[in-house]
Each structure stands twice: as structure tokens, then as C-alpha cells.
Amino acid sequence: MHSLPHDHTGARIKRLRLSRHLTQTALAELAQISPSLLTKVERRERPATPYVIAALARALRVDVATVTGQPYTTELRADKLDVLIRPIRQALDVYDLGADPDIAPRPHQLLADDAEAFLVAVRAGEIKQVAAQIPSVILEATTAAHTAPGRERWLLLASLYRTAYDVASKLGYYDLAALALARMDWAAERGSDAVIGGMYRYMRALTYLRDGEYRTGERLVAVGLQTLAQAEASREREVVTGQLHLGAAVMAGRSKDGSRADGHLAEAERIAASTGEAVAVHWLAFGPTNVAVHRVSVLAELDEYGQAARAGREVTIPQDWPASRRSHHFAELARAQMWTGDLDASFQNLLRARKSAPQQARYHPTVRETYAGLEAARRQLPDSFLSYGNWLGA
Fold this sequence. Notes:
- By secondary structure, the protein is an all-alpha fold.
- Among the domains are: 1-69, lambda repressor-like DNA-binding domains (434 Repressor (Amino-terminal Domain)), CATH 1.10.260; 75-192, no CATH class.
- The protein contains 22 helices and no strands.
- It has helices at 9-19, 24-31, 35-42, 50-60, 64-68, 73-78, 85-93, 108-123, 127-147, 151-170, 174-191, 194-210, 214-229, 235-254, 258-275, 288-301, 305-313, 323-340, 343-356, 358-362, 365-377, 383-392.
- The longest helix has 21 residues, at 127-147.
- The chain is globular and about 65 Å long.
């Protein structure tokens, strides 16, 4: 069930509920949320939090993307991004076919330079540029790895698969993102790199966080930490370990376990004190700033929106922080401010999210749900607000 023109999460939930012949009370009981909240969400009087969306998806026995309406096909088609997905899928499909006789790969260093440039571009919000270019480089790197297998070549391929995951997940193609992650693990195993193996488990845990499968996500974090323990001590290992704790903190927050979330945040903070800002280490943006940003997210997941808004206002974003992370933070802060009733500040942060990384913000479910909440709360909308909604396709 993809998004329709002028569609919204509440309307999709209602259609799914009616197709299963469920009353609002029955669905609310299955999802363990209040019937009044479900009524307001369906009427678009209240936005649905990620926790509520995941709970309803489980109760309806669909994935979260079905509830949120991803991928947003109308907007993707307008931006000419939908046609870029199939070549990525095709490039991922030939991973085990050996060397392609029709492809003459460039030297390893040139391919490695491209892979690094893709990582930087995605974090700068240049999703369309990367989506257009990465399939051919994956095909080159696949042939190179099969022609002359070696650790560097397999890890290069793992990096490209990781970028394919980034592109697919940011555009809402979560089935393709899962496939890219599986390919990343396959290549990392051949490169025998415990740190990349830990990263893979962190990224896979995020897919379970999105789907509301917190227990499985936590198990993946635990396996990731065990995998990292096998790597030699290094700043690189510490950065990925810290990032795993940050992911686990958000997972614990979304499952409403504040004490466990605080424990993971404290451990990440301890690690960040020793690593410092490590923005470019695997482009995870780990460091004290990312710990502070994740604290905002955790407070919001715990429904402590006032504390989240106050903590968010105190965060100072470094100049060299990736635009994609900056945009994500502004979206999270906008959501917290919307729930506290600070509507003007919330909209200003939605504008900041768009300015930081327009392509990412346009397809970010938090941006869309927050906009829906602002729209429901306002009686008179300024022209700039309506223009933002037109840009989203809302």
C-alpha cells in the first residue's frame, strides 16, 4: 500500500483497520494504545510517534513502511529518483556470479576514491547523485574482487554495499536496504574485518528499531559488541562500539526502558570522551556531539518532550558535522517542540532540516509526521508553511 496523493498516516491506518474488519477499540487493544489516541491519529488531529506506528504495524501484521506509506512514490517519481532504484538492485543481485567478462575495472585506488566520495556525498545529502553513480561502481568492484580476491577489494565492496543501504533506506526502499546489508555482511566476512562486522550489526539493528522489533535489535547490538571485542584495540573500534551503544540507547528509549537507555548513553559518553569528535571514522559522526543529539532522541522516545526540547536547544552542532546528521537532528527537535506546543520553533527546525539536506528531509517520515501535527494544530497557516507542505507533497 504505497502513498496516494494527499494521503497521510492516519488515513492509511484507517484503511488497513477497515480491511481487517477491526473497530478502533479492537485495534487499539491489539496495539496496546488508547482508543482516543488512535481516533485522533486517524483523523490527523495527532501525529503518530514511531512507537505508535510500530505498535499499530505489529497489530495489523504489516511492516512499518506500509503504515507510513513508504516509499513516497509520487514524490520520488517527480524527483526522477524512482528510476534509479532498479539499477542498484541489479548491481546487488550479481554479487556471487564471479567476474563479468564485459567489465574492465579501473585500478583499485580509483574505485576506493569513488567509494569514499560516495560516503561523503550521502552525508552531504546528495542522495540523487550517489544513486545515479553507484551501480556501475559496484559492478566494477564486484568484478575486481572476484578477479583478484584480497582483503582490500572485499572491504571496498562492503563499503559500496553500505552506501547502497544508505541510499535505499533514506528513500524508503527498506527491502532493498535489507538486501544491501546482507551483501555488506557477505563482503565483510571475506575481508575478515571485525570492525566492519560490528558496523553491519549496528546497521542491521537499526532496521529492527524502525520495525519496532526492539528485542531482536538489542540482540544484534549484543552480537555486534562481541564481534568488536575480537578486533584489535584502536580508535576505529572504539568509535563503532560507541555508535552501537547510541543505537541501543534509542532502542531502549523506544521500548520505554529509561534506565537501560541511560546506561547505554553513559557508556557512549565515556567512549566519546576518549575518541573526541570522530566525524570521518567510517562517517558515523561519532563523538560528544552525537551523544548529545542521541540524548535528545532518547528523551523524545521516552515521551519526555519538554526535556528533549530543552536538551536540543543546548546542542551546538560543529561546522564539519555531516548535513544528513544535522538535518536528522533538526527533524527530531522539531518533533519534540511540536509535542510541547512550541509550534513556531518546531516549524523553524523543519525549515532547518530542509535547508541542511533537502533530499533527505523530503523523504524523512519524522519530517512528514511533524508537519502533519503542525497542520492539525494551526488554524491560520502562513504562506511559508503551506509552501513547505506542497514541497513535501502533503
